[in-house]
């Protein structure tokens, strides 16, 4: 948590971190999830010095959204995410494939 965070945000961070760990996330990933969520809430409520456009204009708060867009945004998983999945499945030629080619190769392998 950033220095000078309110007690409310500290409690929120701890709650989210513990919940993520209970769901089976690693300690590091749980910390990341909690920090990102709390920072977004801080931006939405005007508690941070800087904020992204999506932090302040998104109609749903991070807690309401609940990971709704994780790995499934408008364009779906990133190329890097697709590449890592192709690597796990040992798909040949993956390093020179585009995002769409990776998507197609993974679909064929299912």
Overview of the molecule:
By secondary structure, this protein is mainly alpha-helical. The mean pLDDT is 82. It has 2 domains: 7-65; 79-108, no CATH class. The chain has helices spanning 7-22, 27-44, 53-57, 62-65, 79-88, 99-108. Helix content is 57%, strand content 0%. Helix 5 (79-88) packs parallel to helix 6.
Compact overview of the structure:
Helix 1 packs antiparallel against helix 2 and helix 5 runs parallel beside helix 6. The protein has helices at 7-22, 27-44, 53-57, 62-65, 79-88, 99-108. It is mostly helical and 110 residues long.
Helix content range of the residues, please?
Answer: 55-70%
| Overall residue-averaged pLDDT value | 82
> Gyration radius, to the nearest Å?
18 Å
Which regions contain 5 or more consecutive residues with pLDDT less than 50? none
The number of distinct structural domains comes to 2
State the end-to-end CA separation: 41 Å
Beta-strand content estimate: under 5%
Biggest sheet details? none
Question: What is the number of strand segments?
Answer: 0
Order of helices and strands: HHHHHH
The total of helices stands at 6
């Amino acid at each position: 948590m950033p220095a000078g965070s309110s007690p409310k945000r500290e409690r929120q961070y701890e709650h989210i971190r513990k919940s993520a760990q209970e769901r089976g996330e690693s300690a590091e990933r749980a910390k990341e999830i909690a920090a990102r969520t709390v920072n977004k809430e801080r931006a939405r409520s005007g508690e941070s010095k800087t904020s992204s456009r999506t932090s302040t204009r998104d109609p749903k708060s991070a807690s309401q959204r609940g990971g709704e867009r994780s790995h499934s945004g408008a364009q779906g998983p990133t190329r890097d995410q697709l590449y890592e999945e192709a690597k796990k499945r040992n798909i040949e030629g993956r390093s020179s494939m585009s995002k769409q080619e990776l998507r197609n190769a993974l679909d064929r392998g299912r």
